[in-house]
């Protein structure tokens, strides 16, 4: 004997198709369509039941308190993002109808959608800006003008190798954005200059 919530004819069922206690999806849809044609007023009853369910859901939401409906603080502009907040920033650069390259929160150039070709997520191999500086009497230092990669990592093997994940990058940055302007302030104690993009 089967429970009410068990499938009769599904995978793993011992019932044959002839002795199945349920129906296939196709036969169910045919039955529903037939009922709808034979009883035109049935749709009114279904709509009324759906309306009652919606009213019940709205009442349940209202009972959750004013926390769900409390006004939120307005977003301060320009937006300032740090740390993990930088992982999914894609600030569009370019004019209307000219294609777009996005500036990522870490300073990376991403989403190269140019030449009438939408291509979100595409970045050319080794397409990055770099900085080389030498303090007076010191050794030169070079950095990719980005911060370290942040999760979620892209690519089949974790880090996306065309973005040169092994190259030295800045320790941290702060992204300031208010469309159409963005600024990234990089910090690294080993770099002898202040760097902003």
List the helices and strands and how they pair.
Blueprint: H1 25-38, H2 42-63, E1 79-82, E2 90-93, E3 100-104, E4 109-113, E5 130-133, E6 141-147, E7 169-170, E8 172-178, E9 181-187, E10 195-196
Parallel strand pairs: 6-7
Antiparallel strand pairs: 1-8, 2-3, 3-4, 5-6, 8-9, 9-10
Quick structural gist:
This protein is α+β, with helices and mostly antiparallel strands.
Any key phrases for this structure?
single chain, 197 residues, alpha+beta, four-stranded antiparallel β-sheet, three-stranded antiparallel β-sheet, 10 strands, 18% helix, disordered N terminus
What does this structure look like?
The protein is built from two helices and ten strands; from the N terminus they run ααββββββββββ. A hairpin with a 2-residue loop joins strand 8 (172-178) and strand 9 (181-187). The chain has helices at residues 25-38, 42-63, and strands at residues 79-82, 90-93, 100-104, 109-113, 130-133, 141-147, 169-170, 172-178, 181-187, 195-196. 18% of the residues lie in helices and 24% in strands. Residues 1-6 have low confidence and may be disordered. The chain is an alpha+beta fold and 197 residues long.
Radius of gyration: 29 Å
**What is the approximate shape?**
elongated
By DSSP (H or I, 4+ residues per run), the number of helices equals 2
Sheet/helix structural class? alpha+beta
Overall residue-averaged pLDDT value: 77
Total beta strand runs: 10
Order of helices and strands: HHEEEEEEEEEE
List segments where confidence is low: pLDDT < 50 over at least 5 consecutive residues. 1-6
């Amino acid at each position: 004997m089967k429970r009410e919530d068990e499938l009769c004819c599904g995978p793993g069922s011992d019932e044959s198709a002839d002795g199945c206690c349920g129906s296939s999806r196709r036969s169910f849809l045919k039955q529903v369509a037939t009922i709808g044609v034979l009883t035109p007023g049935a749709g009114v009853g279904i709509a009324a039941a759906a309306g009652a369910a919606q009213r019940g859901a709205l009442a349940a939401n209202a009972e959750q308190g004013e926390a769900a409906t409390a006004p939120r603080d307005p977003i301060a502009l320009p937006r300032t993002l740090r740390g993990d907040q930088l992982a999914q920033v894609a600030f569009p650069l370019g004019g209307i109808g000219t294609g777009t390259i996005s500036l990522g929160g870490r300073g990376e150039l991403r989403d190269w959608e140019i030449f009438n070709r939408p291509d979100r997520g595409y970045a050319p191999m080794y397409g990055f800006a770099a900085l080389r500086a030498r303090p007076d009497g010191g050794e030169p230092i070079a950095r990719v003008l980005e911060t370290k990669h942040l999760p979620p990592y892209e690519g089949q093997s974790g880090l996306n190798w065309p973005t040169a994940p092994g190259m030295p990058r800045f320790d941290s940055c702060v992204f300031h954005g208010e469309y159409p302007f963005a600024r990234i302030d990089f910090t690294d104690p080993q770099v002898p200059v202040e760097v902003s993009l």
